[in-house]
Fold this protein.
Amino acid sequence: MKKWIAGTLLFVLLIAAFINNEGKRYNGYDPDSPYIGYSGPMYSVVSLRDDDLMTVQERNVSFDFSTYQDDWFDTGYIDFLRQQEWYDATMEKQLKELRQFKGVYSDDVLLKDTYTIQNHSSAEETAVLVYPFVSNISEISERRPELFLNGQQIHTDIRYGYVWNGARRVCNNSNQEYRELLKDNAYLDHALSEERYNLPDLPCHVYKVTYEYDPQITEKAPFLRIRVSYDPSRTALTGFNCSRYPEDNEMVFSMRMYDPQINIPHYCLILAAGEKPEDIQFSFFENGDPTVDKTSDQETPVHTEIREMPLEEAVRECSDLMFNSLQSYGQPALGLTVSEEQFFECSKELMSHFRLFEMGDPAQEFSDLGDLFTETLTDERLCFAVTEISVQGNDAVTFEAVSLKKGSQCWWKEKSAGKRMYELAVNVGNVFRTDKIHAVLSHTDLIRIMENDMGFEEKEGALETELDSKKEYYTLIVKRKK
């Protein structure tokens, strides 16, 4: 967990302003929900076999709350951060602000989900197993389950599923979206399919805008205004490394040219899908609304390179630039858990849902492609760990999935503050069904059990109970002991 924080803290600082301003788009802002953020349930393993030759004889679920004692301020982690090249005064300030909370603790539970799988055939049988879990791409290395067969870790492919289910975001503070997603098992086809979303088959003119740094100009008027005249019925416009502001038959882009505190790109890309824009003009301005003319009298030292290519190729280029930038600044392990191709395909889902490149009224959801790529990275989605196992004839094996599960946060009201909710999905979708489910809580000295329908009693030590395999969901709500 501490290693993951090293990879993500800088990135979090870089996008903090974006999340603060745009947080209403993310799950956790539904006033009718009891949760600030719903992190999805813990799932059961799914078999793609359509017969009963392989069945689950017994299932054991262990909730280990030892992770609740992990305060990374007291682990020497700060010294590690200060040794990094990218650590600066801004980072130090952010850490001091975090330190006032007297610790940053995990609200993850270590989940061990163990199955005894019996082969009833006299011959060796194989099965493709799918283990659903909820994560975003940024946290995938932290959230992905490790799969074991008879105690030995086995190869696992990670597939990235839906962010959107029809017209609603999947993670919307309710397990109802997940139930709708799983009810007809269509999610299995989606999990295993390599075919995703297609962008419109359109030509695209890509304007790469660069400038010659001149402190006499850019220190006084540090923003570049790019005003594009176009026909919205024939051209769809968006940008990368710049923000856009739609107007009647015009699109105004703004780009920050100079900031002595941070290292920013000295270029931006404007993508015009469809017909080539009628005109493009550049000017510097000091601050405020870029659609209001406050143009500097200085000559604008701007260079524009124009290329024409298919839209898919242009967007892929931007996606790869974002992916490589994330790996360079704060997400060095990103390429180990998701490929450039997977990142691009997941981003196209958002582009398709918001009709980013359709003609007509321009989509308002994202200020630029960087905004959309950030949401691709941070949106929670239903993901899948996929593996294949073999079981000898008339034999049984032990299959286990081990993962860190994030708790859903309750509203910060007096009686709910600090509560974390964990849901266990038992009988949802095409799961391996069993009559025997044994559940265990460990390290209960670190938590208070606030509510549960599993049969756990409020006392310290390891707690055990038996669950009904016919029930869809079980709920456990706990709170850290002070």
Summary: Residues 2-22 form the longest helix (21 residues). The two ends are 22 Å apart (CA to CA).
